[in-house]
Every structure is written in structure tokens, then in C-alpha cells.
Design goal:
four-stranded mixed sheet; Glyas_Bleomycin-R_OHBP_Dase; globular; 126 residues; 2 domains; 2 helices; Glyoxalase-like domain protein; alpha/beta; Signal recognition particle alu RNA binding heterodimer, srp9/1; 2,3-Dihydroxybiphenyl 1,2-Dioxygenase, domain 1
Length: 126
């Protein structure tokens, strides 16, 4: 019988160790290497995500994970202090301020990439 209990998301990376360092050390998520050598990422909300190595990995061009925060400016400043680049799109594609924050199209949002090139975002809760 099909059930949604235990459902989780996943995405590929080209270097599991670089992803472990980025998601665990840089972003501060709970990350464990499982028996298959993949990453089990546990989100603070209780959700789970699998990051797996894939031959010929191609980075996701869409946002694979969103981090909702109270203060996007403070979150972007913190990410940048950790060495994360938050201005990843040219202004002629996605107009943003010097920090890469897009304002006025909905919640304030800034995108960034993991070491495998996958796109993530930090956005305002309100």
C-alpha cells in the first residue's frame, strides 16, 4: 500500500564530502553520512533530505531548498561572512541589490549555490 509517511526529498551532488562540509559546517544543518555513502540531512523542522553522488552531475537550475528567515539582510550578511556568495544572477536576469537580495517581487529573497552548483535561497518569512 502506498503511504506518504516517511517521504523525503533528494538531490544530487558531484562531491559528497564538499556537500557534507557545506550543509553541515557552513550552513549548520544536521548531516550524517549513511551506509551507502550518501548524506542524510535533517532539517530543523524534522524534514529529511538525501544528497547523493551522481556520475555526470548537472547542477539544478531551480531552487532545491529554501531557508525562511525573519531578516533576509542579516541572513545574507551571515552567509557572506561564512564565504557564501549570494549574488549569483546578473542584474539583467534578476535585478538585485549589491548583496543579491531581490526586493519587491514578493518576499525579499537571495539565491546562492552549494559546492555542486545547486541553487538554494534565503527568503523573508513575512
Amino acid at each position: 500500500m502506498f503511504t506518504t509517511e516517511g517521504a523525503f526529498s533528494g538531490f544530487s551532488v558531484d562531491d559528497v564530502e564538499a556537500a557534507r562540509v557545506f550543509y553541515g559546517d557552513t550552513l549548520g544543518l544536521d548531516v550524517e553520512v549513511n551506509a551507502m555513502g550518501f548524506l542524510d540531512i535533517t532539517l530543523p523542522s524534522g524534514g529529511r533530505v538525501l544528497a547523493y553522488s551522481k556520475p555526470n552531475h548537472e547542477p539544478a537550475s531551480f531552487t532545491i531548498m529554501n531557508f525562511s528567515v525573519d531578516d533576509v539582510d542579516a541572513a545574507v550578511d551571515d552567509l557572506r561572512a561564512r564565504g557564501v556568495e549570494t549574488k549569483i544572477y546578473p542584474d539583467d536576469q534578476v535585478p538585485s541589490d549589491a548583496k543579491g537580495i531581490v526586493r519587491g517581487w514578493g518576499p525579499d529573497i537571495a539565491w546562492f549555490r552549494d559546492p555542486a552548483g545547486n541553487v538554494l535561497a534565503v527568503l523573508s518569512r513575512s
